[in-house]
Design brief:
7-stranded mixed β-sheet; 4-stranded antiparallel β-sheet; 11 strands; about 0% helix; mainly beta
């Protein structure tokens, strides 16, 4: 009922920047939380950061000061601005959005994940 479409991944040199986007679509009544996760080869998925409906952000220590999460409520979209990228930032990045959808006059909770977008940081 809710689909997430990610974009913006790619290959970048160390020290470079990328901006990821994640747009939600569907019968969304409200969005409570948005976040980004990543999974490097051979490693478990880890939290990158989150942003609440009140625009409070939280980041993993490894990305603090380099990554910024923002949201556009009118577009149901969350962004991840990544600066000063390092080779260890190489991973598949996933967005995660949760809230409520309205189906036949009833609000139901949802928790959706994007398809993942690859970010490669390499000379």
């Amino acid at each position: 009922q809710v689909q997430l479409v990610e974009s913006g991944g790619g290959l970048v040199q160390p020290g470079g920047s990328l901006r990821l986007s994640c747009a939600a679509s569907g019968s969304i009544a409200s969005i409570n939380y948005m976040g980004w996760y990543r999974q490097a080869p051979g490693k478990q998925r880890e939290l990158v950061g989150t942003i609440t409906s009140g625009v409070t952000t939280n980041y993993a220590d490894s990305v603090k000061g380099r990554f910024t999460i923002s949201r556009d409520n009118a577009k149901d979209t969350v962004y991840l601005q990544m600066n000063s990228l390092k080779p260890e930032d190489t991973a598949v990045y996933y967005c995660n959005i949760g809230g409520t959808v309205r189906i036949v006059a009833i609000n139901r909770n949802f928790d959706a994940w994007g398809q993942g977008t690859l970010v490669t940081v390499s000379p």
